Amino acid sequence: MKTDEFEYDLPDAAIAQTPVEPRDAARLLVDRPGGAVDHHVRDLPDLLAPGDLLVVNDTRVIPARLHLTKATGGHAEVLLAERTGLRTWNALVRPGRRLPPGTVLEHEGQPVVEVGEVLPDGDRAVRLLGDEEPLALVGRIGAVPLPPYITEPLGDPERYQTVFADRPGSAAAPTAGLHLTDAVLERCRQRGIAIATVDLEVGLGTFAPIRAEEVEDHVVHTERYAIPAETVAAVDAAERVVAVGTTVVRTLESWAATGATEGPTDLYLRRGHRFAKVDVLLTNFHVPRSSLLVLVDAFIGDRWRDLYATALERGYRFLSFGDAMLLERAP
Predict the structure, then answer these.
(1) What is the 3-state secondary structure (H, E, C) of 99-145?
(2) How far apart are CA 105 and CA 108, in angstroms?
(3) Residue 331: in which H helix or E strand, if any?
(4) How far apart are CA 234 and CA 5, in angstroms?
(5) For range 267-291, the mean pLDDT
(6) What is the pLDDT of residue 122?
(7) Is the terminal CB of the chain with fewer CB neighbours within 10 Å at N or C?
(8) Between the CA of residue 207 and those of 15, 117, 128, 246, what are the distances in Å?
(9) How far is CA 47 from the centre of its chain?
């Protein structure tokens, strides 16, 4: 497949810069055989059925953007992208050319990061220094790393967390989950729709466009996932599995492909994949030429083009703080 097939015109005005309030007031475009129907996320319990299982990613975003200084006093920025070990990460480092391997960066006079080698994709290997627990250190000195297409400041950092965010580890939010509220989840339970969790550490590679000419030549980023035993049992017992976001799809389909309920995954979901676990997908509108858009194409076929065109015509908001759509898997 040519990557150009996943290009579409996305006006700047359609990119949501701030989250809607309240969360569940986000619009929801529901794909129906007779045409797309407008709803809101607050309607989700009525759009699902008793016996369905709603699966959410309960990862918590860490404040992965670190503003640091060199020993000489110059400023540097480290954006943690993907955890590779207890104290090691792949990261975006600026100004990269002025930070050779072995450079130690400080925060308020304390050494906190050692910059390592340049990786094949241009990222840098970095190591967190000191005796402080790594995520505690990052939580103390870091800032929330909003996607690069969001230029407005975020007044409340918790709006880039889901209401069910639990274990810290992600460099980006599982954005479809940002729309859900405790009230929506409780109404789901009252209607006989169960809720289950998975944990996938979302990396910054989720925002990266496909630069290869052919979709198949793109190399997806690796992310770590874990599926609790109770979620495994709930998925196996469900009438339908409704994934909240592409990260949940990737998690459940990685389990189906490997049999492993935890570990790293580099699963690349594209046209031809036979989905084994997920029946319905709640997802935001994605960046052109992205692997997430390729996943949506694999899930519902090329009718995503008409849905995206309809959403733009009807004034839906796109990307991380934007609106959502509800999709049933193509046969």
Answers:
(1) CCCCCEEEECCEEEEEEEEECCCCCEEEEECCCCCHHHHHHHHCECC
(2) 10
(3) none
(4) 37
(5) 96
(6) 85
(7) C
(8) 14, 23, 24, 12
(9) 23
Quote the mean pLDDT of the chain. Answer: 95
CA angle 10, 12, 13 (to 5 degrees): 105
User: Amino acid letter at 91?
Assistant: A
- Element containing residue 242 per DSSP (H, E): strand 240-244
Asked if residue 321 lies in contact with residue 16, where contact means CB atoms within 8 angstroms, the answer is yes
Q: How confident is the model at residue 207 (pLDDT cuts 50, 70, 90)?
A: low
Q: What are phi and psi of 261, to 5 degrees?
A: -95, 0
Domains of the chain by start residue, with CATH: 3-61+153-328 (3.40.1780.10), 65-141 (2.40.10.240)
Helix or strand (DSSP H, E) at 209: none
Smallest CA-to-CA distance from 245 within 286, 192, 287, 302 is with 286
Q: Is the pTM of this model over 0.70?
A: yes
Whether 206 shows a pLDDT value over 90: the answer reads: no
**Residue 268 near residue 218 (C-beta atoms within 8 A):** yes
Mean pLDDT of 179-191: 98
d(CA 242, CA 280): 5
Of the candidate ranges 66-70, 78-82, 237-241, 305-309, the one whose mean pLDDT is the lowest: 78-82
